[in-house]
Design a protein that fits this description.
alpha+beta; 3 domains; 4-stranded antiparallel beta sheet; 8 helices; 8 strands; 35% helix; flat
Length: 232
């Protein structure tokens, strides 16, 4: 009976094509495999004459700013990632801070290999639409260099004639900021670990030490205690 219900369903292939764009890039922290090189790189940057450093960061800002909305903020984040490698009591100028952050930054083209697997759902905001139209959110799998996958999103409107009207795409690609102070529920956390095949005696032991609601930092603290006094 269920099969008969959909026998009259008509499917029409649309002409819309969502093409990959190799110019869409994100930034990420770039650290050498040999960590002993980090302080050497920092020292070389700090040894640059002021004029050379200023000219270099000025050119970097010109090269990167057109592809990233706030490249200065990104450089500051990456500086903070290597701050423990700075010489003790070092006071950096603004130019040095930006330049060190830049040296530990790389770009990654998220769609350089492929853009596929679209999935579409109704948008939570359906206001200010013409009758018979539906606003949607579409997710896609973007695959870049090294076949690293990302989830990207598009939005738009499907009108009463089943025509897709896509919203303009931003010139900038942003990655989400991790909120490490989020509160987690113990039981769903354990279920998710089991679902991923990552649950074991150790994870069970750690989670049993946690309250029903816990934060990322509380979890890290319990893991640190277990490392200091191994039970397994």
């Amino acid at each position: 009976m269920q099969a008969k219900k959909y026998q009259g369903l008509k499917v029409e292939r649309k002409a819309n094509k969502i093409l990959r764009d190799t110019s869409r890039v994100i930034t990420s922290l770039h650290l050498p495999d040999e960590k002993y090189r980090i302080p050497k790189i920092i020292q070389r940057i700090m040894s640059l004459p002021d004029t050379a450093a200023e000219n270099l960061i000025a050119q970097i800002m010109v090269d990167f700013s057109g592809r990233h909305e706030d490249i200065g903020h990104i450089f500051e984040q990456h500086l903070n990632a290597v701050k423990d490698y700075l010489p003790r009591d070092t006071i950096l100028s603004d130019v040095q801070r930006a330049l060190i952050g830049a040296y530990f930054t790389k770009e990654y083209s998220i769609e350089s290999a492929a853009l596929f697997n679209p999935s579409i759902v109704p948008h939570p905001d359906q206001s200010h639409l013409n009758e018979g139209s539906l606003r949607f959110v579409m997710s896609l799998r973007a695959t870049g260099e090294g076949h690293i996958s990302s989830i990207v999103f598009r939005s738009g409107v499907l009108d009463r004639h089943n025509t897709f009207l896509f919203d303009p795409i931003s010139d900038f690609v942003e990655t989400p900021d991790l909120q490490l102070d989020s509160v987690y529920k113990r039981n769903p956390f354990q279920l998710k670990l089991n679902e991923m095949g990552a649950g074991n005696e150790v994870t069970g032991y750690v989670l049993n030490q946690m309250p029903e609601d816990f934060t990322y930092n509380e979890l890290i603290e319990k893991i640190g205690i277990l490392r200091a006094k191994p039970q397994f």
